Amino acid sequence: MYGFGASVTGAGAILVPQTIAMFLIGLVSHRLADRFGSKTILVVGTVISVAGFAILTFAHTQVWEILVAMAIVGIGFGMAFATMSNVIVTAVPPHQTGVANGMNANIRTIVAP
């Protein structure tokens, strides 16, 4: 049996820690970006996300392991996504910021699960 025998709703609830973590870290990411720089926060967020996925790779037999890993992934995603727009805006000429942010939104919509 897959999904710890959970219903569709129960399986979806396993993702709640990721959503909560993304929301909460998104609220403070601007302060972190002001202090350490957007690029640094983007890289740190990516590393944290990879760590969360690594945990999922090796520890996925208990529901609590999945919940912890999803919270870690949420922290990483929240940091990375919250600062990505700043990185994009500073990386392109001023007259192309609209196009660059539009492409970022499109790619996130297409690629994001």
> Main β-sheet: number of strands, strand sense, barrel status?
none
- The low-confidence parts are none
Rounded mean pLDDT score = 90
The SSE order reads HHHHH
Q: Helix share of residues? A: over 70%
Give a verbal description of the structure.
This protein has 113 residues and is mainly alpha-helical. It has one domain (13-111). It has five helices and no strands. It has helices at residues 8-13, 16-36, 38-58, 63-91, 97-111. Helix 2 packs antiparallel against helix 3 (38-58). The chain is elongated, with a radius of gyration of 16 Å. The chain starts with 7 loop residues before the first helix and ends with a helix. The model has no long low-confidence stretch (mean pLDDT 90).
Task: Explain briefly what this protein structure is.
The protein is mainly alpha-helical and 113 residues long. 81% of the residues lie in helices and 0% in strands. Helix 2 packs antiparallel against helix 3, helix 2 runs parallel beside helix 4 and helix 4 packs antiparallel against helix 5.
